């Protein structure tokens, strides 16, 4: 038994969070809770935990249940990662709602028809036009897949940014761009055309990709070069599936007249490093195009680019920051064939498409996404993939130039509660004018069923104007936006109430009447918060206010899981509201006894 006054360990708190008051938990409950954070049981970082779990379950009488001590034994080797996951410290804190949105976008794109499967490479023409998969991996290793994500597909042109990244990683930007330009060509990807310096325009068109291929592991055999690139790609994918389609390679080589023409043109213009065997390089080029991945393994590669060159599921540094930066820059400007400008304008994210129907999409510092559907539009991009990417950025503020602070029309899954957007009710709020105060506004808020936050900023002692309560102080605006994003209904309260009563008494009387009309319980529907004694408020106080609100409301509703989560996140469980009520007071007053015992547990 833990001594009185000692705080539980992280392992204990994690157990309490999952067990919800029970003495034992079934192993599948832990696995389900783990998956809800976005982590997989097969994550390499959790190998010790999963191995120990298997061994431990074999030693139990029923092979299912874990008590606190057995649970601690299983998780202690990976407790830091697990604590981050359950504290919602990952880049997508509310992962399940986000995944549900991805599924809806997938279904919407699935219903699209049109496009044609590429047939100029015979092996590609064999794929069904009905195949459609989406896989994502965040920079914290959170995973989600939907559709045909385990079917092997050839990278084709999607390998171009990857081999460019390898070349820059090995040689540096300056050396690579002695041979290749950085500008969009404005021409078809397979044109025989060079820039004014007799260099390929960029590494995302065929001419540039062929030259880039010649820069990898010069003066060694193709076999050694191929193994080198394969090992790089396996490291980028966290050792997930990376294969090779010999049939596609043979098909590429037999139908590659245009690429041979480009190769000879490049040789004639002396575009290769000295001593390069052009025909050997073309063979290597066709081999790299024929590398196989799945949507799942390729999404980890994309996430490695999103994560600055670190593989998110192994933590291994694979690429230099310089190579990742340069690769994403060129993917943004040149990655989508002749649609690159349109894609940069509407989607605003680095991406690369291939004629296999694959789109490699990177949300820098957030996640990598791979979409795959063989039917292509007239520009060579996946029809369903383009639709999915467009819808993704319409829903979430992932566009590079979305304003993360003020653009309220989109969801921000990077913020906890960022999935909850409530449109302002007419006459209640506006970004420019603040919030009008009065019984009608509070009535609407109560009817919406959301807890109300009253921001009471004491104004200077001076005569007030008759309409001052329609012009809340400017310090409320930022707090209002933050609280509304969390699902509360925030209102400013001016001291010049028409009754002349002390403001707390006035509010209590008003609430009693309104709650009687709406049937809402008055006790905790409104939290009155004094943020400052003058106009100004301090940013750090905003977080304290939201913390108090969340804690007290969880105690009021008896939300044991939320209370355990708050304790796990090191929240001060003794925080008080304006009336000096703690969560323990509220829980006891409402008879939520499990909440009371949960609150007291950490200090027993």
From TrEMBL:
<dbReference type="GO" id="GO:0006543">
    <property type="term" value="P:L-glutamine catabolic process"/>
</dbReference>
<keyword id="KW-0040">ANK repeat</keyword>
<keyword id="KW-0378">Hydrolase</keyword>
<dbReference type="Pfam" id="PF17959">
    <property type="entry name" value="EF-hand_14"/>
</dbReference>
<dbReference type="InterPro" id="IPR036770">
    <property type="entry name" value="Ankyrin_rpt-contain_sf"/>
</dbReference>
<dbReference type="InterPro" id="IPR015868">
    <property type="entry name" value="Glutaminase"/>
</dbReference>
<dbReference type="GO" id="GO:0006537">
    <property type="term" value="P:glutamate biosynthetic process"/>
</dbReference>
<keyword id="KW-0677">Repeat</keyword>
<protein>
    <recommendedName>
        <fullName>glutaminase</fullName>
        <ecNumber>3.5.1.2</ecNumber>
    </recommendedName>
</protein>
<dbReference type="InterPro" id="IPR012338">
    <property type="entry name" value="Beta-lactam/transpept-like"/>
</dbReference>
<dbReference type="Pfam" id="PF04960">
    <property type="entry name" value="Glutaminase"/>
</dbReference>
<dbReference type="InterPro" id="IPR041541">
    <property type="entry name" value="Glutaminase_EF-hand"/>
</dbReference>
<feature type="domain" description="Glutaminase EF-hand">
    <location>
        <begin position="11"/>
        <end position="93"/>
    </location>
</feature>
<comment type="similarity">
    <text>Belongs to the glutaminase family.</text>
</comment>
<dbReference type="GO" id="GO:0004359">
    <property type="term" value="F:glutaminase activity"/>
</dbReference>
């Amino acid at each position: 038994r833990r001594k009185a006054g000692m705080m539980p360990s992280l392992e204990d708190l994690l157990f309490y969070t999952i067990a919800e008051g029970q003495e034992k938990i079934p192993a599948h409950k832990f696995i389900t809770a783990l998956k809800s954070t976005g982590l997989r049981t097969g994550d390499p970082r959790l190998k010790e935990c999963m191995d120990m779990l298997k061994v431990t379950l074999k030693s139990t009488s029923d092979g299912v249940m874990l008590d606190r001590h057995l649970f601690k034994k299983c998780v202690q080797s990976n407790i830091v990662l697990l604590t981050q996951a359950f504290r919602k410290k990952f880049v997508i804190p509310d992962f399940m709602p986000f995944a549900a949105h991805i599924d809806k976008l997938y279904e919407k794109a699935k219903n699209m028809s049109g496009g044609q499967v590429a047939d100029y490479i015979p092996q590609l023409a064999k794929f069904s036009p009905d195949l459609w998969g989406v896989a994502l991996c965040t920079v914290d290793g959170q995973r989600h897949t939907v559709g045909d994500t385990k079917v092997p597909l050839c990278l084709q042109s999607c390998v171009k940014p990857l081999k460019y990244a390898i070349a820059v990683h090995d040689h540096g930007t300056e050396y690579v761009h002695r041979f290749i330009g950085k500008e969009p060509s404005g021409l078809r990807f397979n044109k025989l055309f060079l820039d004014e310096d007799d260099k390929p325009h960029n590494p995302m068109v065929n001419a540039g990709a062929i030259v880039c291929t010649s820069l990898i592991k010069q003066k060694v055999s193709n076999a050694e070069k191929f193994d080198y690139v394969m090992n790089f790609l396996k490291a980028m994918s966290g050792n997930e599936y990376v294969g090779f389609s010999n049939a596609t390679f043979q098909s590429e080589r037999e139908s590659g007249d245009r690429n041979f023409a480009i190769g000879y043109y490049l040789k004639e213009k002396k575009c290769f490093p000295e001593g390069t065997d052009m025909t050997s390089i073309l063979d290597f080029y066709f081999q790299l195009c024929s590398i196989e991945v799945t949507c799942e393994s390729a999404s980890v590669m994309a996430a490695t680019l999103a994560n600055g060159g670190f593989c998110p599921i192994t933590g291994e540094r694979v690429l230099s920051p310089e190579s990742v930066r340069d690769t994403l820059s060129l993917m943004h400007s040149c990655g989508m064939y002749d649609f690159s400008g349109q894609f940069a304008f509407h989607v605003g994210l680095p991406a690369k498409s291939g004629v296999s129907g694959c789109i490699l999409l990177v949300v820098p510092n957030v996640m990598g996404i791979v979409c795959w559907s063989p039917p292509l539009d007239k520009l060579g991009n996946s029809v369903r993939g383009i639709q999915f990417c467009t819808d993704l950025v319409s829903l979430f503020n992932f566009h590079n130039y979305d304003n993360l602070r003020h653009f309220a029309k989109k969801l921000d899954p990077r913020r906890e509660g960022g999935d909850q957007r409530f449109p302002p009710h007419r006459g209640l709020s506006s970004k420019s004018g603040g919030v009008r105060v009065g019984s009608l506004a509070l009535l609407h808020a109560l009817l919406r069923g959301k807890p109300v936050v009253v921001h009471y900023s004491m104004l200077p002692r001076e005569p007030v104007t008759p309409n001052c309560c329609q012009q809340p102080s400017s310090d409320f605006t930022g707090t209002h936006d933050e609280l509304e994003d969390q699902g509360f209904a925030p209102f400013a309260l001016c001291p010049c109430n028409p009754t002349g009563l002390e403001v707390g008494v006035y509010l209590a009387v008003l609430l009693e009447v309104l709650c009687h009309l709406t049937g809402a319980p008055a006790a905790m529907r409104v939290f009155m918060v004094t943020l400052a004694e003058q106009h100004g408020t301090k940013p750090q106080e905003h977080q304290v206010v939201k913390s108090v609100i969340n804690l007290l409301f969880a105690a009021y509703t008896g939300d044991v899981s939320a209370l355990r989560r708050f304790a796990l996140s090191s929240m001060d469980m003794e925080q008080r509201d304006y009336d000096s009520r703690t969560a323990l007071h509220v829980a006891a007053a409402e008879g939520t006894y499990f909440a009371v015992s949960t609150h007291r547990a950490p200090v027993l």
